[in-house]
Amino acid sequence: MRVAEKNVYVFEIAQKATKTDVRDAIRTLYGVNPVAIRTTTRVAHEATKRGRKIHVSGIKKAYVQLKEGDTITAA
To answer: Are 33 and 25 in contact (CB under 8 A)?
Structure first.
């Protein structure tokens, strides 16, 4: 699935944020109602870089799909 073709926007959100929190924030900040929200989490882990162990932070992303015709403009 190509994100741009499906009217989907990707946001990095807080680890404890829920889909309801994301929906409310999108409604408040941008004035549009999401059709669907999917979330994914990348778990924090250790990796090796130049022979040393480093800590890679975990992140959580929300994929927000809007109905046809709705858009979000970056400020």
So the answer is: no
Q: Using CA atoms, how far apart are residues 58 and 6, in angstroms rounded to an integer? A: 26
Residues 15, 41 contacting (CB under 8 angstroms): yes
The superfamily CATH assigns to domain 4-66 is RRM (RNA recognition motif) domain (3.30.70.330)
Report the predicted TM-score, pTM, of the whole model to 2 decimal places: 0.81
Per-domain boundaries in the chain: 4-66
10-30 residue pLDDT tens: 999 999 999 999 999 999 999
Per residue in 41-66, pLDDT (tens digit) is 999 999 999 999 999 999 999 999 99
Find how far residue 18's CA is from the centre of its chain.
11
